Structures are given as C-alpha cells and as structure tokens.
C-alpha cells in the first residue's frame, strides 16, 4: 500500500460483553474497559472481544474511530472532553481520516507487526451514545462514528505511535469530519414528470 501516515493509537477496547444490553442505567454499567494492547486474529477479530469468531460479525469484527470526531462533537455540543472509549470502538486513532477507509484495505503497525484490515461499512452510532457520551452524541456522530473492518492478518496493536498505510490517499486535516450520504436523485413523483411507458 503506497500511502503512509504517522498516526497515534489513543484508545483500544476488547469488550467481553455488550455494555448496553438490556438498556442498563449508565451508573450501573461500570467503568469503560481499557487496555494498552489487543491481539487481532485474521478472520476472527480481537481476542477477548464479544464479536471474536462470531460468523455474523467476521466482516465487521474490528471497529476503528477517529478521535478528532469526538473532539469536534464536544466543541459542537459544548460538553467538554469526551472519553473516546465510551464510543465503544475497538481502535481509536488520532491523525487519520478514518471515514475515507470505508471499503478500502489498510494496515496499522504500532511496533509489534503489521495488522491488515479491510475497511467496510460505516459503524453507525447507536442511541446509547446519548447516555454513554453526552446528550446529542447519537445524532452528532452520524457520518463520523467510525468504520467496521474485517481483520486480514494476525497481529498486535498497542497504544502510542503507529504507521497507517493505505491504498488510497487520505487527508489528515479531514480526520473526524462527517461523511454525509449523497442526496437521492429526484424520483419524478410529485414533480409533474411522467415516467415513460414500457
């Protein structure tokens, strides 16, 4: 992959259980799990995470988020700093245009070998983020809540400096910027246009 970027891994999460299963009271959910190192297995996910080895999640078992998205959200909502791990993403990067990795292969090397990931669909925010982060987070993170990825190699990620390589160029200045869906073209209904007969 020809494009190289120096980034920082600022958060890592391997959660053995769904934190918001059954809509718990945030006060009863306990502290956010934190780790300084995770093991990634090709085709399976992150060792110790609830999605590890689950067939329905193999193409989306690792989630990656740009920390800058939370910085922008905090500024917009006036909430003060937000805990990046409270967003429940496995890997939180600073300095990477994560949303541009949808559908793209990329790799991360934090010093213990290269981890290859296949970027997939967006990791849409869930309603619980209004409780976990701050009121308004669910709506505010739309288009910048990260990317679901499939692990393509075994490796280890750890907190600290890392190298991100991609097949496509990225713009680090756009890290955390929201990607909005393209507007739908008019259907012709209600516009006075008639569809052609076949």
UniProtKB/TrEMBL annotation:
Organism, as annotated: Modestobacter caceresii
SUPFAM superfamilies: PK beta-barrel domain-like
Entry GO MF terms: catalytic activity; molybdenum ion binding; pyridoxal phosphate binding
InterPro entries linked: MoCF_Sase_C (IPR005302), MOSC_domain (IPR052716), Pyrv_Knase-like_insert_dom_sf (IPR011037)
Region annotation (Disordered) ranges: 173-198
Residue span(s) of domain MOSC: 30-166
UniProt lineage: Bacteria, Bacillati, Actinomycetota, Actinomycetes, Geodermatophilales
Superkingdom: Bacteria
Protein name: MOSC domain-containing protein
């Amino acid at each position: 992959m020809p494009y190289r970027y120096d980034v920082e891994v600022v958060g890592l999460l391997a959660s053995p259980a769904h934190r918001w299963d059954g809509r718990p009271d945030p006060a009863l959910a306990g502290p956010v799990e934190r780790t300084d190192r995770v093991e990634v297995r090709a085709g399976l996910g992150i060792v110790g995470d609830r999605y590890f080895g689950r067939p329905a999640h193999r193409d989306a078992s690792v989630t990656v988020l740009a920390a800058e998205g939370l910085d922008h959200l905090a500024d917009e909502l006036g909430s003060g700093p937000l805990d990046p791990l409270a967003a429940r993403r496995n890997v939180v990067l600073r300095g990477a245009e994560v949303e541009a990795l949808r559908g793209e292969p990329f790799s991360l090397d934090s010093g213990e070998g290269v981890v290859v990931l296949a970027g997939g669909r967006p990791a849409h925010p869930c309603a619980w983020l209004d409780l976990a982060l701050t009121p308004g987070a669910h709506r505010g993170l739309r288009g910048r809540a990260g990317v679901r990825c499939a692990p393509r190699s075994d490796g280890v990620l750890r907190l600290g400096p890392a190298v991100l390589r991609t097949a496509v160029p990225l713009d680090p200045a756009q890290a955390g910027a929201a990607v909005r869906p393209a507007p739908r073209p008019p259907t012709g209904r209600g516009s006075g246009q008639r569809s052609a007969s076949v």
